Amino acid sequence: MPSLLTLQGSCLCGAIGFEAKGAFTGFYLCHCQHCQKDTGSAHGANVFLEGATIEWLKGVAALTTYTLPGTRHSKSFCQHCGSALPTLNGSDLRVPAGCLDKAPPLTPSAHLFTASMAQWEPALGDIPRFKALP
Question: What residue stretches are annotated with the CENP-V/GFA domain (predicted)?
Fold first, then answer.
């Protein structure tokens, strides 16, 4: 049985805040080309909840959702700062991990669409790491 989660988050500029509740079904790192374009990075990192509810604590008027025509790929975001925000599809919710105010109490479940992985991503484990700007 999936565990129940409550997640709180907000956008970068603080205009939008939310609380989401639902049954945890997965925390996936998606490497598809849609998620690469959507995030501007190597992958999307999303927590999925089913039977979910979301309460927009503030700023819902600044929320916009875009669905890529002919696909199931959708992205909700703040009109002011562009931050990715949760997208509700019926009672299934996709929550971008980066918009959470606290780290989710779980680790990623799996990598998805690895055949589309950015060519430079496998080398990431071999490059230097800095705690702040070098």
Answer: 7-121
- The residues, ordered by sequence, that sit 6+ positions from 97 with a Cβ below 8 Å of its Cβ are 27, 45, 46, 47, 104
Question: Quick one: DSSP state of residue 91?
Answer: T
Phi, psi of 108 (to 5 degrees): -55, 140
User: Which residues face 102 on adjacent strands?
Assistant: none
- Do 29 and 111 touch, CB atoms closer than 8 A? yes
Contacts 24+ apart (CB under 8 A), 28-31: 28/108, 28/109, 28/110, 28/111, 28/112, 29/108, 29/110, 29/111, 29/112, 30/111, 30/112, 30/113, 31/111, 31/112, 31/113, 31/114, 31/116, 31/117, 31/118, 31/121
pLDDT band of residue 106 (cuts 50, 70, 90) is: confident
Report the distance separating Cα 134 and Cα 115, nearest Å. 33
| Stated pTM of the model | 0.90
Q: Which domains does the chain have, with CATH numbers?
A: 4-126 (2.170.150.70)
